[in-house]
Design goal:
With 85 residues, the protein is mostly helical. It is 49% helix and 0% strand.
């Protein structure tokens, strides 16, 4: 009865989201519409579940990856300044 213990400590929606992660239930699943409603209505974090699904399906496009390094600026075509005339 681990689920019952979890429901006593956490919102039902959060527990349902964890179950979806464990079972691999994704938006293409026939129950997704109902599951999504339960997660939202009972205090789960649907956005976090979506991020986890995206990481699992498209690991190269992880949502929380660090920002890319700034791009190198291209050399200017203007002559280099040498100081006052």
């Amino acid at each position: 009865m681990e689920v019952a213990a979890e429901v006593r400590r956490r919102p039902v929606g959060a527990v349902v989201a964890d179950i979806c992660r464990d079972l691999g239930i994704m938006p293409a699943h026939p129950l997704w519409g109902e599951v999504r409603t339960v997660i939202i209505h009972y205090g789960g974090d649907l956005a976090k579940l979506w991020k986890d699904i995206l990481r699992r399906v498209h690991p190269l496009y992880a949502v929380d990856r660090p920002p890319a390094a700034p791009e190198q600026s291209l050399p200017s075509s203007a002559p280099a300044a040498t100081g006052p005339p």
